[in-house]
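subagent[fold] <- orchestrator: predict structure for attached chain, return tokens only, no commentary.
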Amino acid sequence: MTNSRINFAKTAPKAFKALIGFDAAARAGLDPALVELVQIRASQLNRCAYCLHMHTSDARKAGESEERLHMVAVWHEAGHFFSEKERAALALTEAVTLIHEGGVPDDVYAQALARFGEEELAQLLALIFTINTWNRIAITTAKVPGTDERVAR
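subagent[fold] -> orchestrator:
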């Protein structure tokens, strides 16, 4: 199967590079394990197989356990696998990613603020914004899971 969709990185290089910069700035100061959990959960919700494959692979390489990776999709029922801070981040990720279902509830935002503080919360929000953008790019341009092109950047 030939992909007849554009290569966003090559067709819109300035926008692509700006997004890479935003992504890097968003991650600054955040725990790398938390970054991957957030990216995995958003990718699951958005049904982005390309990004889900990429971020579960990255999480494994960084030492994340298979057990926790399997529990991300059902973290509400398996909360004991995750810290309070991780659960607050996952709840916020879901609220922002599924914003069309009623916005970001005050209690979800308050829990995240209590666990992260203003500056780190801003970083977390930026991370959630970027992974949702990456998901939309990968889905719209029909990126194929397992063909991570980051090394070409």
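orchestrator: received. Logging for downstream: The chain has a mean pLDDT of 94. The two ends are 24 Å apart (CA to CA).
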